[in-house]
Amino acid sequence: MTKKLFILSWTLTLCLTSAAAVAGDIIDRIVATVNGHIILQSDWDDDVRYEAFIGGRPSDRVTSEDRKSALDRLIDQELLREQVRASDSPAASPEEVTRHIDQIRKQYPGAETESGWAATLARYGLTMEDLKKRLAIQLELTRLVEARLRPGVNIDSKSVESYYNQELLPQLRQAGAKDVPLNEVTPTIKELLTQEKVNQLLIAWLQNLRSGSEIHTEASSGPGDGTR
What is the pTM of this model? Predict the structure, then answer.
């Protein structure tokens, strides 16, 4: 169950009064602030590469829309991490992280060997430590969302039957597959509808968190632009 779970800046460039800066080294810049938490250009770039990696897409095919989505996702992640800190939610265990890494490796040919896996990560500018940290955060946020929103979701039998008749059966028949009895697929349909509802509740929750937060990005243009 993956979810898709979520950053820009003011027109600021960090200047350090150091010999390196004077020599012309490129300095990381702020691309967004979320309730005072700074998000840097490097954070944004790293997230774009990570999402391309998780999605199994070449990193050189990232679009401007992909980058915008990555920034929005980073802002949302920071808002949710504030909720994690406030709730003392338990961190993901090393075993959980390892299981997810094993699943990811299966989607990349040649990654079953350590050298092949290292080469795959290197193509996306990632290390194992990077991947472990990012997956741990993702699992932590997923746990928060599930604990907060899933208990309020109730999928009745009428909704399950409606999905079965209007969505599943037409899909099976179009694919030339045999019909399956409703009772056999009820748990699967119920979980699918539950996840859809959780996603809807998450969108509403994030909108509420954004409205009550101080968010600045270089795309901000004042009141009414979705940031404060």
Answer: 0.77
Residue 10 is assigned to a structural domain of this protein = no
CB-CB neighbours of 10 under 10 Å: 15
- Tens digits of per-residue pLDDT, 116-143? 999 999 999 999 999 999 999 999 999 9
Q: Indicate the average pLDDT of the chain.
A: 84
Please count the structural domains in the chain: 1
Q: Is position 14 within any domain?
A: no
Q: Is residue 222 part of a domain?
A: no
CA distance 46 to 76: 16
Q: Please give the pLDDT value at position 131.
A: 95
Domain containing residue 127: CATH number: 1.10.4030.10
- For residue 47, is it within any domain? yes
